[in-house]
Structures are given as C-alpha cells and as structure tokens.
Design brief:
alpha+beta; seven-stranded mixed β-sheet; two-stranded antiparallel ribbon; 6 helices; 36% helix; globular; disordered N terminus; disordered C terminus
C-alpha cells in the first residue's frame, strides 16, 4: 500500500487537503498555476511508484495488478494522478484529474464498512472502490472520469459505490451504469453501486480477496 505524508496544502491562499473541501472551493483552486504545477509534479512521482510496484516481483499480486491497471487506464498525457492520505481514512485516496485539470474524481479502496449492505458486498468481492468526490467544471468531463473508473472496476472485478449528492441530475450516475440500492446515507443521500462486468476476472477473485483480508486485517 502506498504511503503518503498527510498535510493540509495552501496554494494561492486556498487551503485544501480535507474531505470537506467544497465544490466552489475547487472551482477556485483548479485554475491556479501553482496548483496545476503541484498536481503535475505529484503525477510524475505517483507514476514512478506505480511502475515500480507493477514490475516488482516481491510485491503482492493485487498491488502489482492494481498499479498496472492504474497507469494503463489513466495513461500519462491524458490524466494526472495524485495520492493523499486523509487522517480520517485507513487507506489512501486517489485523485485522478483530466488533461487540462478542469475535473477530477477522488476514490479509495475499502475493505470494511459499518453499512450492512456494503459489508455483504465486501464478503463477496473482498474490497470495494468508494467514490469520495467528483468535481467537474467542463462539460462531459465528470462522466468521462466515471467511465474510466468503471473500466478499472471491470478489470479488477471490484464494485464501486457512492452516496449520490448530485442535486442537478438525480439520474446522473444511473445513466452511467450505477443502480440505486434503495439504501440511504446519514443525510438521506441515495446509496448507488456499480457492479463490474468483466466476468473473466472472477477467476482471480479468491486470491485477491485473500490479499485484502491481510491488508485490512479482516478475519
């Protein structure tokens, strides 16, 4: 698992680096020259790390596979990847930006949940992808990033879940392949899930599940 030092960032007088940073805050942050430079520099370090993991025979199978899929599904010159460890989470968050840094999707891998519905899915798949945030300031870029994440889900055979806070379009994620579980979040947000389509990967499900039990100390 990747280790990233946790810190609150101050770029152009704008503080960011916590899960509660809002949409309007990112609208101000993303265009800043210093922020773009920061993300591009972080992307170079992140890709070097992924490449090192993908081709290191001493690394566990899942980490090699995950690293390889990340750099292939989010290729250089089309996406930028930044990783940050938030203190409230037990696993790092991956932030993937589009090529002109006008949109990003933030997600992490989750091996346990207090939600019984999600815990049942974890028992079947071993791990989930949680979408923590999606911010887009250019038409079509949010949907494009979600579609790329679904490709990662299909390749790794890991479901995606999110709590829908999109107030402008209630069917935004359903139109992209998610289904409504009818469960709700703490503030009434619909719990949506995307199930991976690549059934061939199911053959690798058991060893992946075993590895994640070790990573998250699941009995």
């Amino acid at each position: 698992m990747i280790k990233i030092t946790t810190k609150t960032n101050n770029i152009g007088g704008v503080f960011w680096g916590n899960l509660d940073f809002d949409h309007e805050g990112y609208r101000k942050l993303l265009p800043l020259k210093d922020f773009k430079h920061f993300i591009k520099h972080s992307d170079s370090k992140t890709r070097n790390h992924f490449i090192g993991m993908a081709f290191n025979n001493k690394t566990d199978v899942f980490s090699r596979n995950f690293s390889n899929k990340m750099i292939n599904i989010f290729p250089k010159n089309e996406f930028y990847i930044h990783i940050q460890q938030f203190p409230e989470n037990d696993s790092p968050s991956y932030m993937v930006y589009n090529t002109d840094i006008t949109a990003f999707i933030q997600f992490r891998l989750v091996g346990r949940s207090e939600n019984k519905y999600l815990e049942n899915i974890i028992r079947d798949y071993g791990v989930l992808i949680e979408v923590e945030a999606l911010h887009s300031f250019k038409k079509g870029m949010g949907a494009m990033l979600v579609s790329q994440l679904e490709k990662l889900s299909d390749k790794l055979f890991i479901p995606i879940y999110l709590y829908d806070t999109n107030l402008k379009d209630e069917l935004y994620y359903q139109d992209l392949g998610f289904f409504d579980t009818t469960k709700k979040g703490d503030h009434g947000e619909p719990l949506l899930v995307y199930k991976p389509k690549n059934l061939e990967t199911n053959k690798k499900e058991k060893p992946i599940k075993s590895l994640f039990k070790k990573v998250f100390n699941i009995n």
